[in-house]
Amino acid sequence: MLSEIKKENSEELKAYLESRNEEISSDIIVTVSKILEDVRKRKDEAVIAYTEKFDGIRLENYCVSEAEIDEAASHCDPFFMESMQKAKKNIEFFHNAQKQNGYLLQKEKGIYLGQRVLPLDSVGIYVPGGRAQYPSSVLMNAIPAKVAGVKRIVMITPPSKEGSLHPNIAYAAKLAGIDEIYKVGGAQGIGALAYGTQTLPPVDKIVGPGNIFVAAAKKLVFGKVDIDMIAGPSEILVVADENANPAYVASDLLSQAEHDPMASAILLTTSVSLLDAVNEELRKQTDVLPKKAIVEESMKHYGKAIVCDSIEECVNIANQIAPEHLELMVEDPMAYLGLVRHAGSVFMGYYTCESIGDYFGGTNHVLPTSGTARFSSALSVDSFIKKSSFLHYTKEAVDAYGSYIVEMGEQEDLQAHANAVKVRLK
Q: Residue 413 and residue 337: Cα distance in Å, rounded?
């Protein structure tokens, strides 16, 4: 099921994968722009109207009460709740290590300067609704914000046809410490977060996945608020040596292929016999998957394999592709980790499947896709802070260094800049 390509064509594979990015059509941009402008002007009235139009239910009050959250969460399976509690501890453990401190630097003549690390005031988390429900994403988005010190974390999610909140999403929100929830989705939900309404005060940053209309809305409100990223189709790249278990390799490739017909699953290996065994496993395992049709479509177009001369060569090609998930399914993964330059997250060894990171291990599963791991990072505590510098000069310091500053201002023909120092030199 993996079509083999020559290693000389790895650059073409990279371009092919990046072409999966779904271009947002001008029609969608126009539609979403109108919705956002309507929400900006009419606020609650527009939000309620669009919720009725797109979600099929009219909610005069779309703010979720604490009692409603508790009621929904009470229907969760006990083992699911225990699993989520353990996952939360792991996610907190990892993200607590990311906290940063500011600094103060002392210099001569009474000069001091430094940097403060400050949490954002407020963050909005978009949680998809409908048949898809991802409580793990609630934890992955909310916990780093909590660790960063964000005081107000808002969650929005589309209502069901009955106007209810999914029990798993309600429990995840409670567990993550989110107590401000609104039943609104789509572009209108993004507009409400960005511009605010009578019911929902605006936020400073919006994170979380959504459909093409949500993605378009996030792009359009960027600048008014910050956003996390515009995620593309999911992807996994497995680097495997001859000792890798083909059943493990196949199952990990399929774990991403089931996401989306445009998801990519790539195997880089030094063993032709492993590739043959993996293809046989893919056929067997695909046959029993509920999402067989999606998997087959994904593998048909984006399931690829390259046989390399060495693991080092495999990692070099992986760096060109810069995958969202990179598995080093090799005997000594630490020996190769230092060679990895571009990957959203790296999973080490034969037993560390990507699913562990998705749900439980503690590393964040909100990752850069479509080659953007070349220049961007996973969601983290850093995503929810800002840095502000400060500077102090005494009269003695201005007298000593003012002439240099004046010279630089005058050379840039900014006389008022220069004068601001000159008046202090008199």
A: 51
- Give all domains of the chain, ordered by start, each with its CATH number: 3-21+232-361 (3.40.50.1980), 26-227 (3.40.50.1980), 393-425 (no CATH)
Antiparallel, parallel or unpaired: β 325-329 and 226-227: unpaired
Q: Determine the 3-state secondary structure of 55 from DSSP.
A: helix
- Structure tokens, 42: 């009419």
Q: Residues marked as binding for Zn(2+)?
A: 256, 259, 358, 417
Element (H, E) at 156: strand 152-157
Binding residues for NAD(+): 126, 188, 211
Q: Would you call 242 a catalytic residue per the annotation?
A: no
CA dist., res. 347 & res. 424, Å (int): 58
Global confidence as pTM: 0.94
State the residue for tokens 């378009």. 216
Task: Name the DSSP letter for residue 9.
Answer: G
Taking alpha carbons only, the member of 35, 382, 50 closest to residue 195 is 35
Q: How far apart are CA 364 and CA 87, in angstroms?
A: 11
- Structure confidence at residue 22 as a pLDDT band (50, 70, 90): low
Active site residue 18: no
Which residue has 């780093």 as its token pair? 144
Average pLDDT, integer, range 27-36: 96
